[in-house]
Design a protein that fits this description.
Layout (H helix, E strand, L loop, with lengths): L1 E5 L2 E5 L7 H9 L4 E4 L10 H14 L4 E4 L1 E2 L6 H9 L4 E4 L19 H10 L2 E4 L11 H15 L4 E4 L5 H9 L4 E5 L1 H5 L2 H6 L15 H13 L4 E3 L8 H4 L14 H11 L6 H13 L7 E5 L3 E2 L15 E2 L2 E6 L2
Parallel strand pairs: 2-3, 3-4, 5-6, 6-7, 7-8, 8-9, 9-10
Antiparallel strand pairs: 1-11, 11-14, 12-13
Bound molecules: N-carbamoyl-L-aspartate (NCD) and zinc ion.
Zinc ion binds next to loops.
Length: 336
Amino acid sequence: MTLEIPRPDDWHVHLRQGKRMGDYVRAHAAAFGRVLAMPNTIPPLTTPDEISAYRELAREAAPDLDVLTAFRLMPDTGGEEVSALADSGIKAGKYYPDGVTTNSKGGLSNWRQIESALAAMEASGMVLCLHGEEPTASVLKREEAFLPVFREIREAFPRLKMILEHVSSAAGVQAVIDDQGPSAATVTVQHLLFTLDDLIGGSLNPHLFCKPVVKTDEDRKAIQERILDGDNRFFFGSDSAPHEKGQKESPHCPAGAYTAPMALPALVSWFDGVDALDRLEPFLCEFGRNFYGLPSNRGTVRLERRSWTVPQISQGCVPLMAGEELLWRVVSISAV
Ligand code: NCD
Ligand code: ZN
């Protein structure tokens, strides 16, 4: 059995910097048509010039992959800067609470620090991408503890497009459902498929350790239900976050799961397994671009139902589900 779909979108990726960046970009290009890169680089991506230089590097690595980049909101980002970013065609800004995840130091401690930036984002139709965790709360409750901020921002900016990135809890899912304004959530492979038991129930799996952490079966079910329902507010964003094998398998394992090499086969295998292949294409190719107001990608990706073992190592990293068998594989991708 084969399946051909338009080249899909991944609305949350980390492409990093330096010698490995090109490899990570190409890993996405092998299965996707467009990605939204997150700006948690050092230094962070904050200006139109930095972002266009970053996109140029990505383009050199994989000319067929459309790489969009979010700018990072800093405590001193103002409305005029945001207007300039919007004028240069940038579609999204990323909100990191201070210290909440990899490379997020110097982030925000209160959304009121960026009121004028948010007003400019709302006025220009930009998307606010939220790393929705309150860093001072206990780890399993961090997403839920952030939701008052989500609601306060909504109250202040009724037309602001907001995405609760990598939604991980039933409470987060419910906040998006209940929201009266334009909001959505990105869903990762790991939060769709796994729980805390997979992370720490047996032997510790550092390659599944990411922020926000995978949670309970109830949380996973709440996410799965939205996808099976075909809810257009829930679409794919892998949060593929490469960290080299030696770092992940160390006493100071950084947060981040590397999923670029296996995300698409894993998703197709899951949708097929729950008899919901009809939900796949909207989740991967339509809901996100409609939310962002962007056209569909040219070209297609072809998959085949022939089992495949996720490699032990890709681009120096251990991908999620390394060594495990998936039912589907990518056969080919074409940009035209
Ligand atoms: C991401 C990373 O490594 O950059 N890590 C993660 O655990 N998800 C950052 C992020 O999106 O939180
Ligand atoms: Zn991320």
